[in-house]
Write a structure and sequence with these properties.
By secondary structure, this protein is mainly beta. About 4% of the residues have low confidence. It has an eight-stranded antiparallel barrel with strand order 2-3-4-5-10-9-8-7. The chain has two helices and eleven strands, in the order ααβββββββββββ.
């Protein structure tokens, strides 16, 4: 056997076989309850997940309910050409009718938010969330200066308000739980 054939067979033996099953893993969409999320160097456990979608289409928005001790917050991820991530805190307030939602919000006289867009979606839920699975939801997204955002969500008589800021998607890291 010539030296070139020997070198060729050694190189062939060290090549990795292409796998017949390639699994695409997208943590922004596929994370589940019990997984760990690191957001801006702080770790949380996912205690609930809401997927928002139009009937007949894949989900386009994800809400992860995050828990760190007693602190509960929400990581909203909106899917477009890129992923927009928002770390938000729940706010208390009162609003009775979705027809009364204003286009301009004034929060504590400190921050003013303008309505950016409104839409209706269907929800798919897992874990501890504020919403029911398979029901229609209305969502209002407001913006302000310094990448501050306000989200108002309504489902069957219940409003949930979230206030937070846009964060770079590179600052969000997911780790699968060992289940």
């Amino acid at each position: 056997m010539s030296i070139f054939k020997r070198i060729g067979s050694i190189l062939k033996s060290h090549k990795e076989e292409p796998s017949s099953h390639t699994e695409l893993h997208n943590p922004y969409e596929e994370a589940s309850v019990g997984d760990i999320v690191t957001v801006e160097l702080e770790q949380y456990v996912i205690s609930g997940k809401v997927e928002y979608y139009d009937p007949g289409h894949p989900p386009h928005r994800y809400a992860y309910y995050l828990q760190n001790g007693r602190q509960i917050c929400c990581l909203l991820i909106e899917k477009g050409r890129t992923y927009e991530c928002f770390l938000t805190q729940f706010l208390e307030g009162a609003l009775d009718d979705p027809n009364d939602v204003p286009t301009l919000l004034d929060v504590d006289g400190e921050i003013q938010y303008e309505l950016e867009h409104y839409r209706k979606d269907i929800t798919r839920t897992a874990g501890n969330t504020d919403f029911r699975n398979g029901d229609e939801m209305m969502i209002w997204r407001y913006f302000s200066t310094q990448d501050r955002y306000f989200f108002l969500q309504w489902q069957d008589g219940k409003f949930i308000a979230l206030q937070g800021e846009r964060i770079p998607s590179a600052d969000v890291k997911f780790m699968r739980s060992a289940q």
